[in-house]
From TrEMBL:
Domain of life: Eukaryota
PROSITE patterns noted in UniProt: SAA
Biased amino acid composition, Basic and acidic residues: 88-101
One Gene Ontology cellular component: high-density lipoprotein particle
First and last residue of the signal peptide: 1-18
UniProt entry tagged with the keyword Translocase: no
Protein name, UniProt field: Serum amyloid A protein
Keywords annotated in UniProt: Acute phase, HDL, Signal
Role, per record: Major acute phase reactant. Apolipoprotein of the HDL complex.
Pfam families the record matches: SAA
UniProt-listed InterPro entries: Serum_amyloid_A (IPR000096), Synovial_Prolif_Regulator (IPR052464)
Taxon lineage: Eukaryota, Metazoa, Chordata, Craniata, Vertebrata
GO BP term, example: acute-phase response
Length: 121
């Protein structure tokens, strides 16, 4: 009985840790999602659309898995830290971070979509 229980516990531990090798690929694809959202934001050049693209980039990256979620967090926090120290307003940075968290937590990015933004985005 003890051997069976030990085998079951070992199986559960190994199974829970067996997905570690997916993390780097998820992170790379998540970073690519973040870049695509940034690139689309620059391409769209649409007034009041930056919160939408923040939420969309984080949403797409986080859907990749834990690695994508990690990449979205690191990129978003780093970007806001750099932009915050460059003299941008604290309120704007806080609003960006709220949109980042919304997307990362699975919220629909369209909550922030501005009227008239072309459907291709």
């Amino acid at each position: 009985m003890k051997l069976l229980l030990a085998g079951l516990v070992l199986t559960l531990i190994v199974g829970a840790q067996a997905q570690w090798y997916h993390f780097p690929g998820e992170a790379a694809r998540g970073a690519k999602d973040m870049w695509r959202a940034y690139d689309d934001m620059k391409d769209a050049n649409w007034k009041n659309s930056d919160k939408y693209f923040h939420a969309r980039g984080n949403y797409d990256a986080a859907r990749r898995g834990p690695g994508g979620r990690w990449a979205a967090t690191v990129i978003s926090d780093g970007r806001e830290m750099v932009q915050g120290s460059s003299g941008r307003g604290h309120e704007d940075s806080a609003a960006d971070q709220e949109a980042n968290r919304w997307g990362r937590n699975g919220g629909d990015p369209n909550r922030y979509r501005p009227n008239g933004l072309p459907r291709k985005y």
